[in-house]
Amino acid sequence: MKIGKQTIKLENTPKILQTSSMVGPKEKQGPLSIYFDLDTKDIFLGEKSFEKAESKMLELCILNLLKKSSTKAEDVDYIFAGDLLNQCISSGYCMRNLGIPFFGLYGACSTFCESLTLASLFVNANYAQKVVAATSSHFCSAERQFRMPLEHGNQKSPTAQCTVTAAGSAIVVPKDFSISGPYITYVTPGKVVDYNITDMTNMGSAMVPAVYNTLATHLQDTGRTPDYYDAIVTGDLGVLGSEIIVDLFKKDGINLQGIHADCGALIYNHDMQDTHCGGSGCGCMASVFSGYFFEQLKTKKMNKILIIATGALMSTLSSQQGESIPGIAHAVAIENEA
Amino acid sequence: MKIGKQTIKLENTPKILQTSSMVGPKEKQGPLSIYFDLDTKDIFLGEKSFEKAESKMLELCILNLLKKSSTKAEDVDYIFAGDLLNQCISSGYCMRNLGIPFFGLYGACSTFCESLTLASLFVNANYAQKVVAATSSHFCSAERQFRMPLEHGNQKSPTAQCTVTAAGSAIVVPKDFSISGPYITYVTPGKVVDYNITDMTNMGSAMVPAVYNTLATHLQDTGRTPDYYDAIVTGDLGVLGSEIIVDLFKKDGINLQGIHADCGALIYNHDMQDTHCGGSGCGCMASVFSGYFFEQLKTKKMNKILIIATGALMSTLSSQQGESIPGIAHAVAIENEA
After folding, report:
1. In a domain? residue B129
2. Which residues contact A328 (CB under 8 A, 6 or more apart)?
3. Which residues of chain A have pLDDT under 50?
4. Which H helix or E strand runs over A265?
5. Residue B209 CB partners (closer than 8 Å, separation 6+)
6. What is the pLDDT of residue A198?
7. pLDDT tens digit sequence for B220-257
8. What angle do CA B81, B57, B92 make, to 5 degrees?
9. Residue B276: which domain range?
10. Sequence-ordered list of residues with C-beta below 8 angstroms from that of A314, at least 6 positions apart, any chain
């Protein structure tokens, strides 16, 4: 049921049965290392190209999800997935091997919350019993598509973020499913917001207005205040964008300090790993939620979190044509009690 | 409610309140000319690039939909949209101006049925009262992204299809809405199917297996036979793919002759317009359904149709890496009586 301006209350409170995450070598060296299910030392994963490697990583992540949740691929009703590559080939080729009815999504780095939103809404409406949400990104495939060939060895701007090599996935089931799991209670799909930022190396700042819009709307629609949540988790504003979003809400008299966290800021040790403003990419929130935050919920260290995945909807071509960077942010509330 | 393997029955039978279509000069010269709402003689639509022109066309198409259905943008709950461009910039930039909560999709040329499926399921589940589905494509932006710069003037293979310059959109509302309109009764989301076709200039053939899979599943899940429908409309197998799909079902003893139609085959006069195997692109089924078929339903010349949009999920990069072309097809049943 829709409440307020753009939030949907999931009255049948579907639950997340299980999650799965897989990361590359750099992410495995980061502070969240122990929370990831799978990792690879070989950035090619035995494949012949970075794109095939990314697709393989997404597939391994989903196969691990099925294994962890004792689910056969043929028992998954639908899968929602997407990635950053042109024509979303990481997801498309991965799905070829899984044989699950597939909805392809593109929301840039907001795609994990977009896929989790739609998966949850499908289960909530009794359209399906088992729906998977999954996304991936790969530093090397993203770098050569959006920036420079790796061989170029270019320097990064201090405001830049690193696309993570990671995949994450979650399987959503109805609340009467016997195994315990946190519930999806509300979703707030976002609008496209553009504050005329044109610097492709400062994506955190470009996406802040979309997060502000979606979070403010979510709080207004649900009547909640930020301190209702144990954590409000964005992905990925990075270090700089995180400072800006806290400042912005402060001006409205709303305190996010100590409540806000950002997957891009969490995934690397910035001083040691030379990652500037942190991580980004479809796989960042996907892996950090599926790894770290799901564990916090399962162990009751956190009981109520709001995850807000943020996407920058430009392309290299739109930037070359002088366009600014539109942002979007989708929010999903996940709670241990429904 | 899910029935059979992968079909969802829409028990609350949402209806299509209105549609809108816009086409370029070549499509306007085709046999369906009179059915399109808007057209442009200027392929740039006054913009500075083909990509901006495509985004503008999608926006004009949606604004016309709102006008035709006496709906304000702020009264639209959600919009599902996508296109063929890298990072779906046609939709992303268009949404910036509309201010409607947005779900970005990528399903290649299957995107219109993907968006109509999700829009209908949202209304059916009472998540929303007014949801828009929209897609676009542009010959010039597609040609230079997927094939060759226009200035190159390359010849096309006899099996090739032309990406149409067109946009289409539909607004879905609950069945109790006062204005009459055809109902969405069933949706059958598709699986990714790959029969190892590698020829990017023969996309119709590459997508046939996906159509076969989705249509066979739809018939099995619903217990219907093809002659239940006044038309089974694919988009876009083109002339060659259309022959193959009829042949394939013939081998199963199922006759599609006289029932099957294809948007890519319908939109051009192939002998006069030098369009080889016909049209393709996200805008092809979007405009042909929103223009021609919606009119057939409204005037009761047809009462039951099944539309099946088909997408080829490759990219130029995956083809350069020697990959075959995976296909997907999503089916939506639209009927005057529910």
Report:
1. yes
2. A107, A108, A110, A190, A191, A192, A193, A210, A310, A311, A313, B92, B95, B102, B104
3. none
4. helix A263-266
5. B193, B194, B195, B327
6. 93
7. 999 999 999 999 999 999 999 999 999 999 999 999 99
8. 40
9. 183-335
10. A200, A323, A324, A325, A326, B87, B89, B92
Same domain for B163 and B187, yes or no, is: no
Q: Which two tokens stand for residue B302?
A: 């047809």
* Counted domains in chain A: 2
Q: Are A96 and A293 in contact (CB under 8 A)?
A: no
The arithmetic mean of pLDDT across residues B43-63, rounded, is: 98
Residue A153 has a pLDDT of: 84
Contact residues on chain A for B98, CB-CB shorter than 8 A: 192
Please identify, among B155, B173, B191, the residue that sits at the C-terminal boundary of a domain. Answer: B173
| DSSP string of A86-126, one letter each residue | GGGHHHHHHHHHH---EEEB--GGGHHHHHHHHHHHHHHTT
Touching A: B residues 160-219, CB under 8 Å: 189-194
Q: Which residues of B touch A129 (CB under 8 A)?
A: 2
Residue A237 to chain B, least CA–CA distance (Å):
19
Query: Do B164 and B291 sit in the same domain of this protein?
Result: no
Interface check B327 vs A, CB under 8 A: no
Contacts of A299 (CB under 8 A, 6+ apart): none
Whether residue B317 is found in the same domain as residue B257? yes
At B123, phi and psi to the nearest 5? -70, -40
User: In chain A, what residues touch B99 (CB-CB under 8 Å)?
Assistant: 191-192
Q: Are A129 and A43 members of one domain?
A: yes
- Give the tokens for residue B308: 């099946």
* Partner residue facing A96 (CB), from B8, B96, B194: B194
* Closest chain A CA to residue B187: A127
State pLDDT tens for residues A63-103: 999 999 999 999 999 999 999 999 999 999 999 999 999 99
Q: Is the domain of A190 the same as that of A318?
A: yes
| CATH number of the CATH domain containing B282 | 3.40.47.40
- The answer to whether position B103 is within a domain reads yes
Q: Both B248 and B298 in a single domain?
A: yes
Q: Do B313 and A89 touch (CB under 8 A)?
A: yes
ipTM score above 0.95 = yes
Distance CA B279, CA B275 (A): 7
- Interface with B, mutate which of A5, A59, A102, A332 (most B CBs under 10 A): A102
Q: Based on the fold, state whether residues B307 and B161 are members of the same structural domain.
A: no
Q: Give me the residues paired with residue B330 across strands.
A: B309
**Half-sphere exposure (Cβ direction) of B26: Cα atoms closer than 13 Å:** 20
Residue A101, chain B, CB below 8 Å: the answer is yes
Residues B154 and B187 in one domain: no
Element (H, E) at B186: strand B183-188
Of B105, B121, B124, the CB nearest to A105: B105
Nearest by CB: A125 against B89, B100, B121: B121
Chain A residues with CB under 8 Å of B326 CB are 92-93, 95-96
Residues 6+ apart with CB under 8 A from B196: B324
> Is the pLDDT confidence value at B72 over 90?
yes
Which stretch of DSSP H or E encloses residue A243?
A: helix A238-251
Measured at the alpha carbon of residue A332, what is the angle toward residues B120 and B185, in degrees to the nearest 5?
10
